[in-house]
Amino acid sequence: MNKLKKLDILFEVKSMGISFFVPVLSVLFLIFLSYTELGPEITRKLSLFIEFIICPLAAWWCIYLFIDYYEENMEEVLFTYPVSFFFHGVLRSIIFLILYILLLILGMIPISLRHELVQFSTQVFQYIPQCILYGAVGFCLTVMTRTIVFPILCIVGYAAGKYFTGGSNLFPIYNIMFFDIESSQHLIVEKAITNIGLALLFFFIGHSILRKRTLINK
């Protein structure tokens, strides 16, 4: 709890600059898109937009949290602050990831109310674990490469590759997404558990790398 009190969210937002609003505007556009028409076709479009745009954007804040660390050459100064490397890395990332998930949940409420085919509880189980995994991957790649450009390119490239190949073996990397708005409950639960498990692994790897590279307090 004391560590959470040390987190200055307003400062973090200012550090991100105008980039902070990219996820917010994307969720607002999602809501706008949901009101353009009704029927199975728009439901399919919304599902694709969420899986290939909104979910990958969960990594955006987790990556941009480190813009001062690695892009502004302030790593050595910031890491001398009297807080742990866990605070600098995983904790800050998870807090902003939670904020993004809350933003998405708030956006999903009016969509589920407008479209009968969009079941709120099902959508949460489908998309939130994806967001968590993307956030963890973004954090891990940023810490590993000490840049924000490479993680963004990797996530954009992954999402684009999966979209254009439809998740086929042409792009033989694990599918974070479902590609199907009518997936079975068994598949939803199975993939949700897998995504969260992989997310924990990536957070652990990123945390371990950050710990070895810094001399700040534990």
Report on the structure:
The protein is mostly helical. The protein is 73% helix and 0% strand. Helix 5 runs parallel beside helix 9 and helix 9 crosses helix 10. It is globular.
Tell me the fraction of residues in β-strands, as a range.
under 5%
The level of helicity is over 70%
Please provide the count of β strands.
0
**Termini separation (Å)?**
16 Å
Output mean pLDDT. Answer: 83
Give, in order, the helices and strands.
HHHHHHHHHHH
Structural class determined from secondary elements: mainly alpha
Q: How big is the Rg? A: 18 Å
Summed up, the helix count is: 11
Shape: globular
Q: Uncertain segments of ≥5 residues (pLDDT<50)?
A: none
Largest β-sheet summary = none
Task: Kindly summarize this structure in a few lines.
The protein has 218 residues and is mainly alpha-helical. It has helices at 2-5, 9-16, 21-34, 40-54, 58-64, 67-71, 75-78, 85-114, 120-145, 149-165, 185-213. Helix 5 (58-64) runs parallel beside helix 9 (120-145), helix 8 packs antiparallel against helix 9 (120-145) and helix 9 packs parallel to helix 11.
